[in-house]
């Protein structure tokens, strides 16, 4: 693994449904608003795409605000992009595979939905645009 990659393991959350969630947080969440591109397999067996913005991120997951929302327990792939401060021609991205562990209707936010993803695999990369 290179110096610009972070590999994480599986985090388990206990979750009883959309409106009730019991979870134990073992890591710090960092507030980070960054563009997230989403791909998930729907209950209908069809691959869906969407986009949104992260609200916060941790070593083992992220919380995303979006207009289209994957269902509970769906496997999801996210690419979270954020600019490189020193060089605008470069950017960083986190590629995250995980499972949706919480879904919330956000009545106070124009995005509409918020959902939490527990990461099964995350990689940080630096890329040229």
How would you describe what is shown here?
This protein is mainly beta and 129 residues long. It has a single domain, classed as Electron Transport, Fmn-binding Protein, Chain A (Pnp Oxidase, Chain A). It is built from no helices and nine strands. The strands form two sheets. The chain has a six-stranded antiparallel beta barrel. Strand 5 and strand 6 form a beta hairpin. It is globular. 23% of the residues are buried. The N terminus is likely disordered.
- Look at the structure and give the mean pLDDT: 80
- How many discrete structural domains? 1
CATH topology: Pnp Oxidase, Chain A
Corresponding CATH architecture: Roll
Which radius of gyration do the C-alpha atoms yield? 15 Å
- Strand order, biggest sheet? 4-5-6-9-8-7
What does the largest sheet look like?
6 strands, antiparallel, barrel
Strand content: over 45%
Say how many strands there are: 9
Helix and strand run:
EEEEEEEEE
Question: Which regions have little confidence, pLDDT < 50, spanning 5+ residues?
Answer: 1-22
Q: How many DSSP helices?
A: 0
For CATH, the homologous superfamily is named as Electron Transport, Fmn-binding Protein, Chain A
Range of helix content? under 10%
Distance between the termini: 22 Å
